[in-house]
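Co-fold these.
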Amino acid sequence: MSDITAGGAKPSSINLAKVLGPIHVWALGVGIVLVGEFMGWNLSVEKGGALGSIIACWIVGLLYTCVAMIDSEVTSTVAAAGGQYTQAKHTTGPLMAFNVGLYLVLAYTMLEAADVFVFGDLVRIAAEGLGAEPGSVDARPFVLLAVAVLAWLNYRGVFMALSINFLITAVAFASIVVLFVAYQFGVGTAEPLHHQELGMGGLPYGWMGVLAAFQFAIWYYLGIEGTCQAAEEVRSCGRSLPLGTMTGMITLLIAAALTWYVCAGSLPWEYLGTALAPLYDTSRMSGSTFLVVLLWIGTVFSALASANGCINDASRAWFSMGRDRYLPQFFAAVHPRYRTPYRAIIFLIPIAASFGFLQLLGPVITFSILSGLLGYTFMPINMFRFRSKWPLETIKRGYVHPFHPIPSLVLVTLCAATFVAVYLGFGTQLLAMMVFYVVASVWFVFFRYKYVRRGDQFTMAWPRPRGY
Amino acid sequence: MLDFLQFRGPWDVIQAGAWLVSLLLLGWMLWDAIRVSQQYGEDVLTSSQEGVDELAMQQDGQRKS
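Predicted complex below.
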């Protein structure tokens, strides 16, 4: 590459910087997700009770383990930004790729909007706790501040943005571990955990309640698949991506189990199912000021880490679609100094900020989850096509996931079950979203596809696919 | 008309500071993006190639030299 040249000479080509390692991949994946441990997952308790929630947590954990395994194998060979979008254009076709790209951008941008809204609201709550008159503090300047600072970080370079994400994600994760240790060993806590007395023993709504809990158990893991957006910027894609993704998934399984254990053992399930910030509430039950402050910091950091990762992922997906002319090529620009997709980052700022200002947490996060779920449903198709077109002996993979096709079959089955659960709770939103994607697809086919570089978009140095 | 400049307490100042810092950062990004677009041609800015492993190419170059 002849990009950044010495002596101030103008470059002839500019690519994204390859500066990331496995810890950045871990920070990207876990950072996006961990906010779901601090809030959101507990709505599954309302649907299925405490026991139903942990069953749903494990089953959906299996869904995401399949997602991580499939993603790790395909992405270890597709060293390009765009993640599942780039995979889709290689394995399936332009219309699928366009839709997957939209799923990604909307899932991450809506999640970012929800994160910054939560951050603004947490600052408002803290201000009122510190003596501000109730209703006098506006959350909106803090929503915009979070978007602006995080976008600026991402604009200035991916290495610093994800290094900071690693630090704040680690602090947020540590706060969960400290809360668990405090309760489990009775350090600074007023009462021990008592699961049985708080209604842990049964399924109040039977197995139907467990199924209904699936849609909220997704919060424990939503976004781990975002690690593959970093594929073009990691130093060793074949090694770093699988390592960062799988360790991230293990971290999330541990965090989910610890979160459920301390919350279900200290809060009645009827309250837990409706709480806004269950981990923070659990820390308040301890009577320890240290734990309350630590969990407030953990909640704030998790929201910021998630928003930061979402800016990174949404901008890479938007950038990649611009590069292939699925969107105007204007968005495919890379900053010559910072080596980031700066126009895509700037373009998505007003969208995230305006949805954050609207303070519609429920619809925004539902749109994000449903878009993510559509993306997961594509993954088994992706895996089957990848293995059939390019069998193991034809391409060297950085990671080969075991027991194929079992993970793909498990994933598609669990996705179908989760769609049923979503339909039970958000049927109208699900149908409205499907209409949106159908309309977007029609627009793409009739108005945009003519601009797509059909031959140039197949960039991997792979042999001709089997059967072609 | 300029009521928003009348600060009633420290949180009003903090909120005004948050608006100001946000606008400064957003303004800087816009200014920098426009500046870069004026300094470099579109063909250069949009020249990134998917699947190009520059590290591998550098290592190959070092081995050859």
